Amino acid sequence: MPEQDDGQREFDLRWADDAEHKEPSARARMLAARWKENPPQPQPFRAAPGPAAPRRSSWVSTAIVLGCVAAVILLLGYTQFRAPY
């Protein structure tokens, strides 16, 4: 099929945009059908935040990461030391 030139493609887009009836998306149709039977409850604009989770210190996280890296380095060094040549 030959490629459409830009003018023809622009005409097709204008024709589609100017359509009198536009079909809603599948998600919009699904939500409309669901809400017809069970309408959603009103929600505040911004819901109240839940309780904040306790945060660990960044030093604790850094120590855990560095400890894991050191353990991997030691494990790799030990396996290289024990490997027969």
Any key phrases for this structure?
3 helices; mainly alpha; 85 residues; single chain
Overview of the structural elements:
The protein has 85 residues and is an all-alpha fold. Helix content is 58%, strand content 0%. The chain is built from 3 helices and no strands. The chain has helices spanning 6-17, 26-37, 58-82. The N and C termini lie far apart (65 Å). The mean pLDDT is 81.
Radius of gyration over alpha carbons? 31 Å
What is the terminal separation in angstroms?
65 Å
Question: In one word, what is the shape?
Answer: elongated
According to DSSP, the number of beta strands is 0
Q: How do the SSEs run, as a string of H and E? A: HHH
The number of distinct helices, counting runs of at least 4 residues, comes to 3
Oligomerization state of this entry? single chain
Enumerate the spans where pLDDT stays under 50 for 5 or more consecutive residues: none
Strand fraction band? under 5%
Mean pLDDT: 81
How is the biggest beta sheet arranged?
A: none
Helix content: 55-70%
Q: Structural class, please?
A: mainly alpha
